Input
Amino acid sequence: MELKDKKILVVAAHPDDEVLGCGGTLAKAIAEGSEVHVIFLGEGISARFPIGEYGSKEFHEQTKVRQEGAKKALAVLKITNFEFGTRLCTQFDKYPLLSIVKEIEMKLESFSPDILFTHNPAEVNIDHRLTYEAVEVACRPTRKNIPKEIYTFEILCSGSWTFESTFKPNVFVNIAKFWDIKLKAWQCYEGEARPFPFPRCEEGMKTVAQYRGLSSNLELAEGFKLVRKICL
Output
């Protein structure tokens, strides 16, 4: 994966997915002169509340905390172009898939990325799976401005708890020099970590990075699956 002087788009379901899935790689890409844009399709909080009860003070406060955490995390990664979506967490199936596709298509048309990172379909979280499907539709190869390289990433928890399907990366990015940046960005998301052995903790994150490193003879790595590459 060539990261130097590229235009990179991250299509993420929720704030924090960008750090968990590819934070080290994004930091590396920016250090090598690439421009990174991020779009979040949903808000990431509502699943923690009773269905339909999204008007409380607590809900709005937690939503603000999540967005402010994202802004801080993106600042750590030196990403200045990002968009927040408002789709309800783990309820992306309540929205027409076409509405998600159209949002992604608009971003592709305005930005014309070289590389796109998004979720993989082997996830418990339905929002992650539908994000993948929407990207798949938006990036059909007959369209203009689609990225020449599309990669999927893994998310701790959601990808750790599937019954059968598993994420099988075939591309590995050395993030040893950028691990501290990824960790600092993750620490901006207040209240999202839980104690080990919950996967989404600092020890869990490093365990996965080491495991992906074992697959590629690297100290610490992020794993991706190349789902399409068009060579002209």
